[in-house]
Write a structure and sequence with these properties.
The chain is mainly alpha-helical. Helix content is about 75%, strand content about 0%. It is built from 9 helices and no strands.
């Protein structure tokens, strides 16, 4: 112990006493802005954080994501492949295709709404209207008139003069139920060829007296080979993407 104490004393004498570690301070106080520019920067940060929180909901409500994901889920169930492809793969495919489909609208929203606002050429209200306009046009082109009429009737606004008078709170739910209906229609069409294979396999097994053998085990390889032969992913992805007007 004496040698350890002597060594410590020699080290302090040689290199000096260790400096006290200074921790940075965090100031959480809200101060009055010194100029209008500082206030605008603070509001921009708040808006960006709000959009990040609402981003998943906006992707599902205002883009092609809902239809794509439901169609892919129907396809997996129709083939009977359980969890193949896994949910992560289906969601990633839906996101990538959503970006591909919505890229023109996003580019237009950025060029006409966000960029002028960042350059301080327009205000908040005009920037919002310009940024949302491409998405409203996309939703309106893919929404059935019957669904729009439903929510207009509920709101008591059935006397609109033009499509420009349709507000976003009415367009969003109408677009959602239109997407659900279209996705279920595509899912029904996907089920038909695989259902035929299941019926044929079941009939053959019953005719051979193999009632204890699950038909799914026999029909699954036939479904997979049929899907490969017709180049299923190319056919389905191309048809679904082209279904958006």
């Amino acid at each position: 112990m004496r040698f350890a104490g002597l060594f410590a004393a020699l080290a302090i004498a040689a290199f000096g006493a260790p400096e006290v570690l200074q921790l940075p301070t965090v100031d959480l106080r809200i101060n009055a802005p010194e100029n209008p520019t500082q206030l605008v920067q603070t509001l921009n940060i708040i808006i960006i954080l709000t959009l990040l929180v609402l981003a998943p909901s906006l992707v599902m409500m205002m883009t092609s994501f809902t239809r794509l994901l439901i169609v892919f889920s129907f396809l997996r169930q129709a083939m009977g492949t359980q969890q193949t492809p896994p949910n992560q793969i289906l969601i990633s495919m839906a996101l990538i295709l959503t970006f591909f489909i919505m890229e023109p609208a996003m580019r237009q929203a950025w060029n006409e709404g966000i960029t002028p606002y960042m350059n301080e050429q327009i205000g908040y209200a005009e920037a919002f209207d310009r940024a949302v306009a491409p998405f409203e046009d996309f939703m309106l082109r893919n929404t059935r008139e019957k669904d729009l009429a439903l929510f207009l009737r509920i709101r008591g606004e059935s006397n609109l003069q033009s499509e420009a008078d349709i507000t976003l709170p009415i367009l969003l739910p109408a677009f959602m139920i239109s997407e659900l209906k279209t996705a279920f229609e595509i899912g029904f069409l996907l089920y038909l060829p695989f259902l035929v294979i299941d019926m044929v396999v079941s009939s053959v097994l019953m005719a051979m007296g193999m009632m204890m053998l699950p038909p799914v085990m026999i029909s699954l390889p036939f479904k997979i080979i049929l899907f490969i032969m017709v180049d299923g992913w190319n056919l389905i992805v191309g048809s679904v993407v082209q279904s958006f007007r």
